Structure formats: structure tokens, C-alpha cells
Amino acid sequence: MSDLYDHTKATWCPGCGNHLIVRALDQAIERAGLDRHRVVLVSGIGQAAKLPHYVREPINVFNGLHGRAIPPATALKLANHELEVIITSGEGDMYGEGGNHLLHAMRRNVGVKAFVHNNQIYALTKGQASPTSDPGTTTKLQPYGVVAGAFNPLALAISQGCSFVARSFAGLPDHLEEMMVAALAHKGGFALLDILQPCVTFNKINTFKWYKDRVRPLDSAYDPFDRARAVETAFAWGEEIPVGIIYRNHRASYESQLPILKAGPLVGRYEASVA
Amino acid sequence: MDLNIRIAGEAGQGVQTAGDLLVEAFASIKLHAFSTQSYMSRIRGGLNWYDIRLSDAELWSGCEQADLLVALTPEALEELRPQVAEGGLILYDGEAPDGVVGMHFDDLAKEAGGNAIMGNAVAAGAVFGLLGYDLEQLVDYLGVLFGRKGPEVIAQNAACARRGAELVTAHAGRLTAPQPSDGPQFVTDGASAFGLGACTAGVKFVSSYPMSPSTGVLNFMAGMSERYGVLVEQAEDEIAALNMVCGATYAGVPAMTTTSGGGFALMVEALSLAGMLELPVLVLLAQRPGPATGLPTRTGQEDLQLTIHAGHGEFPRAIYAPGTLSQAYALAREALTMAHRYQSPAIVLMDQYLIDMHRNLPPLDEAYRPIDRALTSDGGPDYRRYALTDSGVSPRAIPGGEAFVVCDSDEHTEDGHLTEDLHVRVAMVDKRLRKEEGLRSECLPPELYGPADAETLLLCWGSTYGPCREAIDTFAAAGQSVAMLHFPQVWPLPAEAVRAAIGERRRVICIEGNARGQFASVLRESGALSACELLTRYDGMPFTGQEIVRRVSP
Q1: Which residues in chain B are contacts of A266 at CB distance < 8 A?
Q2: CB B189 within 8 A of CB B66
Q3: Is residue A222 part of a domain?
């Protein structure tokens, strides 16, 4: 039988950053010591959102609608807070179509880990501007260049009190894995990991080399709990792009504060759950 | 016999509080009480009214005229005076013009040693006085109502009620009122009845964006959160609400959302997702008139076609339409059960009229009796979430156990992974639609009321049950043979069985709260009905039994 329909074969372009991201995720899940039966990968729609189908070993998958990864992930965590719920989706999905959900996920601080593949372009729809495209970027749809300003996920997240805010780059596999492991270890609620990633087909500006020349891992003296410093770091974009854990705080997770969940996961209390 | 009391005033004046108090008080003395509400979309001002119909026999509908108008503002008096029945009385909160019983409820409450809030007790006392009911029984009821607030508050309210009754004894007018009979003590409303049905059936997660007239259900379930272990989440929008419900059901928790037409419109893509992922989502859609924002606080039955057709692509769903409060309770369970049995969305259509309706009825069972979630426990390494079966229903496992549960909004293989294999595609469409046959075979039959051989048959669905039933009784009392066929489930219908139930009649009249006869269209399209008359109402107000009699009569 031909492998035309073999779901284990990734449909991404050769050289796409997604290949590196899925490898890093597989390794991070293993390094974090997670039981794959108790992990759910949630995604929306887009090239990045196909990732859950291409992981190394079987895992639970909820591949939902475009822009709507966060609501089912939130509910999953509330229905069974013993599951590790990881979103892997693109910036069009998470910052564009689903922007409102991102705001409210950060407000709630629900314990979901969001890994956002950010290639500054819409790839599945074949090369239109994304919310993070730099002004001036030309595409078939924006032949005179993008006029709107670029969405800054990190600054937004910090301003909303997101409890874990990090950035990495697909071209730094060790660093990326490190950031994923740190996000998975975060027990204090919602974690946003923005992953810079070249699109080898549609983004001819933000290439591997472009990112490689600019990304600068934060040094060990950097204190992510310093909010003012974090805001400053989040706005750094251009000749130097800082990567690492940009910001953290000590908020308690949403699910840990709901009285109804004190007795254990909702799903486990079905047969006789009258208090 | 029966009698209608209309309490009217501005939003924020306590019209609803006074009405609720009286319904409970009348139930406590074994009358049959039935209330409906008419209110404007505002928090203060305007003109709202609350009708309480009383009888010595069970009631099914509101009525048009008031026998006793309790007017709290000059506007209420002016606007609603023309609808007071001949021989009726008016009780006015203020200096009364001729022919009206006037008293300042709040001032009297203060004089009687209470505070302005206790004006309601003064009014209740006055109403009891005008109707000739035993005031001591009202005082007993106030003792129960305010039991938790302590003896002082009880005594103050009792004094207020007595003061109100005393003052009306000076007035000559009296109304002939129905006598207490066998009215049940238990009082509930549509929102609470549906909410209780959902809680006792095992709904564990509710995610909604508040929207009239559905919010009462959401509030009720939030209040029951601890008792039944229900997590109620206020979603950022309706898109999130139904997507959350999809996530919760995937995790194994029976879940639902509450909304109205405009909110449901935003949920449509997620409904299609539930169809594709085969998730047992439950939607309560409390209808109000549209299009767009329409009349936010009024009633209508305009969203039937929307719910039947909502969602891109083709997938099964079950749609229920309770006609009474006990049916609202029972159909919450039925809808949740069928959603799980067929792993498909279920929608319950109510409306402002039914949601806000209060009445006394035999108690609803509050015991927790969770439905069968129809889960499989034998997932293993070879588990396939979408295994092809004869019924179309695949074994459903939930994440966290032995099975890996994979689901995808793309067309997918039996193991849940996305595919573009067009043979698989066809097999999956067929599998999903086979479930519709199962749902159709378990469709609740319509209920016939009235003589089976009646020449005239009224067809109705949802909340028009009561007004139609009252009309049938009125026709019967006049020796006219008219029957009704009420549909508690409106989709998917077994066409042959429905055709047989309708039978051969001289007149078939479909009664609907919309302009185009949406249900009649559904019946015609399915082949269950060839032609019928339409009796529609779409001004935002509910049908009454009297109106149906008037408009159906040849």
C-alpha cells in the first residue's frame, strides 16, 4: 500500500522548522517523565496544528477548530486536572483567529502549556501576512507591504500577568527543549512559549539565518521575576532578539483555586458526585 | 373557576419579587397558581408586569385580561387599566383615582414597623384581603419564607401583611376568587426545572456566555454547583463556550452550554466540530425573537430551522422542545442520554415564556441519578476511537486510561488521525449518518390530547403545549371536538409514524411562535404532512388558550 495517506508521515516542507519542534517536544515529554497516557496534545488548524499527528509515540490528541485550541484545552484541564494539557499551534491560530481566548486564558491562568509556532506568515493558506509579520512584509495579499503593526505576544502576556512567558527558536534545538521542559515543570498556571520558526516556502525574509544571526539566549543573571525588566526584554526585536524565560510570577493556577475541584478531578467523581 | 392578578411597575421596583412571593403563598394554601412575565430590556424604569393566574384546577396558560391589577406606577395604571376585566379591581401604590383602591405600600410598611422592602408584604396582605383568603395562612407562609432571617423580620413582615389586609377591608370591592383545592406545594420555574434535570442527570460542566433568556438556567446551575458537583465557567464568548463543552466531553465529563439564538449562531462551527468528533454536547437554546438582537426579553419560536440546519457539513443531532416544566426537567435527562448513546449533539429548545414561567406542580425528583455515559473501558493498544460499526456508534474511551484517544476535526481514519483518503471519507460520512437512524428510531412520539377522532387537529411543539391544551379543554366544554398533537422532540422525526399520528382530518392547524410556520415546513419536507393551516404569533408575546380558541373557531 502506498504511504500517500500514512498519517505518521509529516506533510511539512523539507527544512520546515516544525520538524525540529516536534522532535524537541517528543524529547521534552520524555525528559519531563510524563506518562503519555496522561498527556493530551491540543491544536487548532494550520501547519503547526498538525503536529500532534506526527509525534514519535502514540499520545492523546484533540485537533479542533481554527483558532479554538485554548477553549477545549481549558475545559479539558478543568474536567481532569491530572492530565498534562499541551497546546501546539501556530501564531495565526493562537494570536490571530483565537486572540480573544489567549487573553482570557492568561487572565484565568489555567494550567495549560501553549507552545506557539511563530513563523510570521500564514503557511497553510499559502503565504499571507500573520499577526506577527513585520510591517513592510510583502505577500500576494499585501503586495504593498503590511501596514499594521506586529503583534507582540510576550509584551501582551506580561501585561496580562501570564504566569510563565518564554521564547525560543526552532534552530536552537537544545534551548527549545530546555524551554519546553521548563514550561512543563511550571505548576503555577498558564505557560506561553513563543517559538520562532522559519517558513522555508513563504517567508523569504525571516529565514533560518535571519533568526540565527539575531537570537540571543538570556544570560544566567537575568531575573524573570523582574517585571519591568521583562517588559523591556519583551520589546527587544531587531538586531538582537532575546530568547529564554522572559517572565514569571507566583500566581496560583486557576484550577487550584476552584473549591469544586478540591475533592479531585471532576471526571473521577461522576457516579456519586453529590457533595 | 380562575382569576388573573397582574402586578405591574418599573424594572427594579420588585415586581418579580412580589410575584414570586405571591405564587409561593398561593401554592402554600393549595391553590393552583401559574405565572408568566412580561418585561422590558432594561434594569430600571419602563413597564414590566407579572401575571399570576389562580384556579381550583390545574392551569396551562396565561390569559389576556386581569381581574386584579396591582399597579406600582402611574404608567402601569394608565397602560394596563384597559385590560382589566369587567368587574375587576385595581390596587394602586399611591393616591388612588376613582374606582381604584389606593395605598402607599412602602410608607405603610414603615408605619407597621418594617422597612420599605416590606412593601411587598403589605401588597400581598392587600391581595389576600381583596380575594377573601385567610390572612393567617399568608402570615404562616411568610414565617417559612423568612425563617432564616429570624423572628424579628418574620414579625415585621407579618405586621405589614396584616396592615395591607386591614386597609382593603374598608373598601367595598371584593373579587370572587377560586377556592383552595389540591394545588401542590412545590413551585418551580422553567429555568430551574431544566437546570435541575441537567444536574440530576449528571451534567458536570457548564460553560456559557450570559444571554437572556437563558441566563436563569446558568444561575440556577451555579447555585447548585456544590450540591451536584457542577463546575460552571463563564466563557469569554459563545465560541469559547461550546468549544469548551467539546473539550470537557472529550475528557469524559457530561457538559452543556446555555444560550439564545444570537449566541447559538456563534456556536455553529463548534456544533459541527461536535458532530465531527462525535462528542455528546448538550445545548440549551432559550429562544427570543430575532433577527439579530431582536426583542431580548420577549418570547418566540424562531430558531427551530436554525438548530436543524446549524453547522457546515452533514451530521446527526437530536432536538427537543419541552412543553411544560415537568417536561423541561425530563427532557434535560433525555437529551443528555441520547447525546451520549449516539455521541452526537443534542439541543433543547425552550423560550422566554417557558423559562420564566412559574407554577406549582408535583415535586421534581432532586436525587442524583447520573445517566450512562456509554463509555468503553476496554481500550488497549489497538483502540480506535472511530471504529466502523453497524450502528455507527464507536466504542468511546476517554483520555487518562489505557487507550490513546485521538480526534481530529479533519476527516479522519478509524484511529482518529487526519486523512484525505476518499474511501475512508465516504465510510466515515456513512458511519456518522447511521447514528441518525438510531436517533430517529428512538424519537419521542408526539402526545395526543383530546378526542382521537377529532375533525380538527392542532399541531404544536415546545412551549405552546399549555395554551393549546387549555384551548382543547375550552372546546370540549363547548361540545366541540378538537384535539392537539404536541411534539416534545422535533428532530429527527420518523415521517411515517408522524403521518399516521396526524391521520385524516378536516382541518390541521400548526400553531407556532414564528411568522413562517417553521415546524410545518419540517413536517412537509419530511413527507409527514401535505398541507395545513398556520396559526402564528411573532409579536414577542406568548399564545394564550383564549387566543387560540378565538382564532381557531370557524
Answers
A1: 204-205, 229, 231, 253
A2: no
A3: yes
Residue B245 and residue B205 in contact, taking contact as beta carbons nearer than 8 Å = yes
Determine the pLDDT at residue A274: 44
The reply to whether B365 falls in a domain is: no
Domain count, chain B: 4
Asked if B418's CB is within 8 angstroms of A50's CB, the reply is yes
CA–CA distance, A18 with A48 (Å, rounded to integer): 7
The C-alpha cell that represents B545 in the structure block: 388558550
Kindly report the pTM of this predicted structure.
0.97
How far apart are the CA of A4 and the nearest CA of chain B, in angstroms? 9
Residues B156 and B31 in one domain: yes
Q: How far apart are CA B184 and CA B223, in angstroms?
A: 24
Q: Which of B426, B442, B458 is the last residue of a domain?
A: B442
CA distance between the termini of chain B: 26
Q: Do B237 and A65 touch (CB under 8 A)?
A: no
Whether A5 shows a pLDDT value over 80: the answer reads no
- Residue B261 domain-assigned? yes
Shortest distance between the Cα of B87 and any Cα of chain A, in A, equals 52
Q: Do B247 and A62 touch (CB under 8 A)?
A: yes
The C-alpha cell of A37 is what? 497516557
Q: Which residue reads 509529516 in cell numbers?
A: A10
B401 min Cα distance to partner chain A (Å)? 6
CB of B340 closer than 8 Å to CB of B374: yes
CA B179/CA B176 separation, integer angstroms: 9
Contact (CB, 8 A) for B554 and B522:
no
Q: Look at phi and psi of residue B263 and say left if phi exceeds 0, alpha if psi is from -120 to 50, else beta.
A: alpha
Question: CA-CA distance, B279 to B282, in Å (whole number)?
Answer: 9
| Cell (9 digits) for A252 | 496560583
Maximum Cα–Cα distance across chain B: 86
pLDDT greater than 70 at residue A273 = no
By residue range, what is the domain housing residue A239?
A: 17-265
User: How far is the alpha carbon of A115 from chain B, nearest alpha carbon, in Å?
Assistant: 18
ipTM: 0.97
Partner-chain contact A75 B207, CB within 8 Å: yes
Tell me whether residues A260 and B231 touch, CB distance under 8 A.
yes
Task: Convert the pLDDT of each residue in B165-203 to its tens digit.
Answer: 998 887 767 789 999 999 999 999 999 999 999 999 999
- From B2, B24, B34, B59, select the one nearest B359 (Cα to Cα): B34
**Which tens digits make up the pLDDT trace of A160-192?**
999 999 999 999 999 999 999 999 999 999 999
- The domain in which residue B71 lies consists of 2-169
User: Cα–Cα distance between B366 and B428 in angstroms, integer?
Assistant: 40
Secondary structure in 3-state letters for B186-250: CEEEHHHHHHHHHHHHCCCEEEECCCCCCHHHHHHHHHCHHHHCCEEEECCCHHHHHHHHHHHHH
Give the containing element (helix H, strand E) for B88: strand B84-93
**Cross-chain residue pair B251–A50, CB shorter than 8 Å:** no
Would the CA dihedral through B194, B199, B200, B203 be positive or negative?
A: positive
CATH code at position A177: 3.40.50.970
Q: Tens digits of per-residue pLDDT, B219-244?
A: 999 999 999 999 999 999 999 999 99
Residue with cell 527558536: A169
Q: How many domains does chain A have?
A: 1
Tens-digit pLDDT profile for residues B87-131: 999 999 999 888 899 999 999 999 988 888 888 899 999 999 999
By three-state DSSP, how is residue A167 classified? strand
Question: Is B512 a residue whose pLDDT tops 90?
Answer: yes
